[in-house]
């Protein structure tokens, strides 16, 4: 996918991107097809016979591939009756299990080859090969997507079971968590609280992610379920013993700037697990529209900017930068990261210094040079802030 990103940065021919989209779909590369769509490819330029059928895509088990064929520009090619048939097909695969259905279709009793693959930019799926046929195990996610498209409401219990058949970075898990978090209703909240009390860490992890998304997607911090989520996550953070679950719980507090949430985060500044410390660093500080930073949060961010884990330093530096208050201790700590051996740490140091209108950001930006091919969007997000600072300074 990195190569595709590089080509998209270099090539401005949108007709060629549409052609490449068709080729990617025909080759069952759903993740690449979606990157091309995000890069401006117009799927409607491809005739129906230049693409796979929706049935072939559903059979493949790739949510990314099905999603590419259901792009808004060509979605009306599929009547509701066909979408219902594809929903039923995805359900058959999901309920039978990819391995069982694959054995049924191939008639093979050979050993199954199973690997983990990236399906799109964010999620992975399992890929199974048997008897010369290869499928991915994303049918549960496809089922969830088709139900949403058709306006079919699966029960909360069914969706949670569907998610928990998989691991956290699987598409099925992510699709269900996002879909349920948009149901602002008591049934969803009760399910999240039930998961919080479960003895199985994987179920608690899903409950924590669901609460985090309920808070994240709230229209305001005064919304009923947002208030419930913040209170529950704050209390939960003092009780959770599993590192992965605790990190998810703390991430649920990172968009809520309040004293109780901050105290919950500060309690874990020195945690032994780097993932937990990253969650603390990401949660401390302020929203972009505020320059307030408590003394306790300031001291914690200064400590976390010297953390042995580079991701913890990045999160702490970003939040220190977003304080935008010109604090010399913070700016000096960020400037020290300009000499860090990892480019991604240097980039966020440039970003943070620029937000503080500290001219050392320009030295760091000059040393870094232009964005690397394939990483343009990510790196421009940091470098552009420094260049804007220079323009403001030079204009004055």
Automatic annotation (TrEMBL):
SUPFAM superfamilies: ARM repeat. This is HEAT repeat domain-containing protein. Gene3D superfamilies: Leucine-rich Repeat Variant.
